[in-house]
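Lab meeting, item 3. Inverse folding demo.
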């Protein structure tokens, strides 16, 4: 176990050694530890080594200066200058929130970006301001389309954050693949097999050995497949970025700028209904869902994101767990 503050410090030091500026190192560390606090280790500090390798190879601009262009009262484009996606997505959400507070809605596409980490971080930020947050990002081709055996789309996650009055916000953050590829990496780090259905080998056959996984599967068959396309439209095509197999790979060509796109949106409920009533109704909905009769063998009904919130509360006190190999890398000189 390691405290969240120590984990952030170690990540910042590693990124600084790779010549990332202090502001960006702080934000990247914050987003990574946010994921580990929620026990979403696939998007946590285990990513640090890859980021360091890409920085050193020239695939990320360590002194990026993103530029925002307002294109309308509720729209804008953020050019990330090939910096870290964590920083760029955070800036994009800040701009979207500013527009939502003033005009009811804010929508921003980000271009010339890179991997941005857990989307829950950004929608949580909106929900903490009593706004509805939404975020999408495309990723490089790793998911087999429904009915196919060769990868085309990315894991293409989508996230929503909805505020409540007294309850914790509703946070839904999910990949449109069965799992994020980070879970495959985590299984490799921990030397564990994976459940059948998570991924397929190079021949398109189901694999339970994480080292044999060449591609991921969609969740929910054609439904996840359809949502994955939508994510690529919003965060790829709408941002003027590439799609599917034309996106630069994450784990190869480390010297290449990835030019990823993101889409974020913030919505101010007070422009649509009474804000206080909306928040109270969210409280009521969450309470009623949690009080739903559980199925046989199930302790109780949880709402999406609740288990991660409970992990976060506990881990802030007791610390986060990371793989020994990851800790050794963070401590190495």
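The presenter then showed the designed sequence:
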């Amino acid at each position: 176990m390691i405290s969240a503050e120590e984990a952030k410090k170690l990540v910042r030091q590693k990124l600084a050694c790779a010549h990332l500026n202090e502001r960006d190192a702080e934000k990247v560390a914050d987003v990574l530890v946010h994921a580990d606090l929620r026990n979403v280790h696939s998007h946590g500090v285990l990513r640090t080594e890859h980021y360091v390798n890409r920085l050193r190879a020239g695939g990320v601009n360590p002194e990026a200066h993103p530029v925002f262009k307002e294109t309308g009262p509720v729209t804008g484009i953020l050019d990330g200058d090939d910096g870290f996606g964590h920083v760029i997505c955070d800036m994009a959400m800040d701009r979207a929130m500013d527009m939502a507070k003033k005009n009811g809605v804010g929508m921003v596409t980000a271009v010339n970006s890179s991997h941005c980490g857990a989307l829950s971080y950004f929608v949580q930020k909106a929900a903490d301001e009593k706004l509805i947050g939404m975020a999408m990002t495309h990723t490089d081709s790793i998911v087999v389309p429904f009915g196919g055996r060769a990868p085309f789309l990315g894991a293409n996650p989508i996230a929503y954050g909805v505020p409540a009055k007294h309850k914790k916000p509703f946070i839904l953050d999910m990949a449109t693949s069965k799992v994020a590829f980070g879970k495959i990496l985590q299984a490799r780090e921990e030397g564990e097999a994976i459940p059948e259905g998570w991924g397929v080998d190079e021949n398109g056959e189901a694999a339970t050995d994480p080292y044999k996984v060449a591609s991921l599967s969609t969740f929910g068959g054609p439904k996840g497949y359809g949502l994955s396309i939508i994510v690529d439209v919003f965060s790829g095509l709408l941002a003027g970025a590439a799609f599917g197999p034309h996106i630069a790979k994450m784990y190869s060509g480390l010297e290449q700028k990835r030019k990823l796109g993101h889409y974020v949106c913030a919505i101010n409920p007070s422009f649509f209904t009474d804000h206080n009533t909306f928040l109270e109704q969210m409280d009521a909905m969450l309470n009623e869902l949690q009080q739903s009769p559980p199925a046989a063998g199930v302790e109780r009904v949880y709402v999406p994101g609740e288990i991660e919130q409970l992990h976060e509360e506990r881990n802030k006190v007791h610390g986060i767990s990371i793989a020994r190999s990851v800790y050794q890398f963070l401590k190495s000189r």
